Amino acid sequence: MSIVNRVATALIAPLVAVVAAMVITSVVITVVGDSALEFWQIVLSAPADRAYVNIVNQATMIFLSALAAAIGFRMNLFNIGVEGQYTIAAYSAALFAGAAFLPGLLNVAVALLLAMAVGAFWAGIAGVLRVTRGVSEVISTIMLNAIGLTLVGYLLNTYGQQTGNARRTPVIEVESRLPGWTPFLERDGAVFNLVILAVLAGVGYSLLLNRTRFGFDLRATGFSESAATASGVNVRKMVVISMLLSGAIAGLVWMPALFGQAHSFGTSFQVGLGFIGIAVALLGRNRPLGIMFGALLFAFLNEQSNRLTLETDISQDIVQITQGVIVLAIVVAYEVVRRYRVAAERRNVSSRPEGDAKTPEESVPV
Amino acid sequence: MNAEVAIEARDVTKRFPGVVANRDVNISIRAGTVHALVGENGAGKSTLMKILYGVQKQDEGTLSVNGREVSFGSPTDAIADGIGMVFQHFMLADNLTVAENVVLGSEKLHGIGDDAHAEIKRISDAYGFGLDPDALVERLGVGERQRVEILKVLYRGAQIIILDEPTAVLVPQEVDALFDNLRELKAEGHTILFISHKLDEVLAVADDITVMRRGTTVGETTPADTTKRQLAELMVGSELPSPQSEHTTVTDEVQLEVEDLTLHDERGRALLTDIDLTIHRGEVLGIAGVEGNGQAELVETIMGLRKPSTGRVVLRGKDMSSWSTRERRDAGIGYIPEDRQRHGLLLDAPLWENRILGHQTREPSVKGILINRAGARADTERIVDAYDVRTPSIDTLSAALSGGNQQKLVVGREMSGEPVLLIAAHPTRGVDIGAQAAIWDHIRDARREGLAVLLISADLDELIGLSDRIEVILRGCLVGGFDPQSVTPQDLGSAMTGGGEEAAS
Question: CA separation (Å) from A65 to A68, A275, A302, B36, B271?
Answer without folding.
Answer: 5, 8, 16, 58, 47
